[in-house]
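Handoff note, outgoing to incoming analyst
You'll be picking up this chain. Sequence as last confirmed:
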Amino acid sequence: MKKTAALWLIAVSCATAVCAVAQSPIVTKPVVTKVEPPNWWANYSINPVRLLLRGERLRDATLTAPRGFAVSNIRSNERGTYLFADLKIPATAMPGSYPLTVTSRAGSSQVPFQLAKPLSATDNFRGFSNDDVIYLLMPDRFANGDPSNDDPAISHGLYDRTKPRYYHGGDIAGIIQHLPYFKELGVTAIWTTPIYDNNNGLNDKEKYDGKGISDYHGYGAIDYYGVEEHLGTLDLLRKLVVEAHKLGIKVIQDQVSNHVGPYHPWVADPPLPTWFHGTAAQHINETWQVWTLADPNASAQIRRDVTDGWFIDILPDMNQEEPEVRQYEIQNTLWWLGAVGFDGIRQDTWPYVSRAFWHDWMAAIKQQYPSVTVVGEIFDQDPALESFFQGGREHEGIDTGLDSVFDFPAYYRMRDAFGSGKPVQAVANVIGHDYLYPRPAALIPFLANHDTPRFMNDEGSTIAGLKLAFTCLLTLRGIPLIYYGDEIAMSGGGDPDNRRDFPGGWHDDPANAFTKAGRTPDQEEVFEHVKKLTALRASDAALRHGELKTLVTTQQQWVYARRSGSHTAVVAINNDKTPAVITIPLSGMTLADGTSLRGALGVVGKATVQSGQITVSLPARSAEVFVSR
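Most recent structure output, in case you need it:
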């Protein structure tokens, strides 16, 4: 009996053990769903490149590479959903496929990785300068070149032209198709709002501004390496740059390093606990007090509320103090440049990231692509604060190296003067603060952008006022920027009304403002005026590169000269509702008595220098540009 009982117990125990084994979960090999960056280049300024792999069961995994490559500094997060590794690329490696292998105790998986052929440094990465006129457009609202991507399956339900916060169908193909329009207008560079892949569903009504909106604008990235499917593909984006370059038109990318969208996979599963400043549940709300960053009396905490806060309390703020984040974002910027061939970068929300990061970021760009130009967005009307952020001068021991900033102070005063009829002297006054900037000639003045109401929305705005504004914009120092549709006097209030579809960008639009026949008389008047000004600017080096000298300034008249070498152009503006006779002293302008100056805009026929001055009669709300040839 004892022996039988013992055998019975052994049998039961074995059966139980077998059952336990049978019921235990099967351990499977690691899975990688995304590699960032997906490709790199040999003989690149960053080598090794820091890889970020996303997947499952990656904790304590290893990564190996083909012969000649070297992997080091491997690090996984606690949940095993991310793996970091340095990949050293041999200088002799040729473009092609070089799969990597991720291995854990449960097995191995192959990871795709490519070495790309470098784009021509001669044909790409050209930068922008005072020789350029920039045109800002929002791809979704400009032109629909490919209706097949209007409502893609992966994000079905976001397309509706009747709803101002949904996708409307504009895309990269539409931009390509209208490159000749830019050429006709005299535009030499286009800046598109972000093309990052954005949220694939309607945003949570409770979390995101109460409207259940899409991220058609591009500023809510869910993939820093993806192209939004409503806009096209990476190959099509590359084609845009190639085709634009054939016409002598540069392309500027809009980047957003400060934050991602609230639906980025990182928000629910960050690669590291320190990936963001805070979490969705607990973070600082952005205070918008950018002025404290320049204030020597501001406490560290007050400044931290600006740089570490979540934009509109929902956009996750990237933590560039974390070395992994810093390296990720620097590499991401270089990848976009290297993969597409962009000529410049517009960096969103510049003040909200630390100066130390921007210094390293700019240095990395200039090391690999020294000709690429970067402009930062600092949305403020105080020239002292704007100038604080332009590179070329150290603050607290750091020079960010930023090439340019948008001239928001001039924007506010030009809108007041030419839109609302307030004194033009205020424009002269704000330009008089150029001494604050390390490089005032690199500033980018503008009349409107995607974050402001349109010029024609201002109370009292007129076609005459818009033409005056364009005359000032396109003859002022700096690099002028035109917001899409302003050249045809489009209207629009605050966001999203200021982002209306360009008429004619859709095949069923009742009118096509891309053509002379499709424009109304008012639209054609403004278009031809802008076209004449861009041609004049292109033909006259003084209007592009000349130093600016104010010659006359009264409440509603402003006269300034642009002088380059021995050549001088004189710009006379009468912002008054009545005609004005203006005597303009030309001392030091290298214009001898008897010199005949031609009115290039046809408002005044000509003026002759007598006793070192000219006297001109300008109609109400008009301007003239006088040139000596």
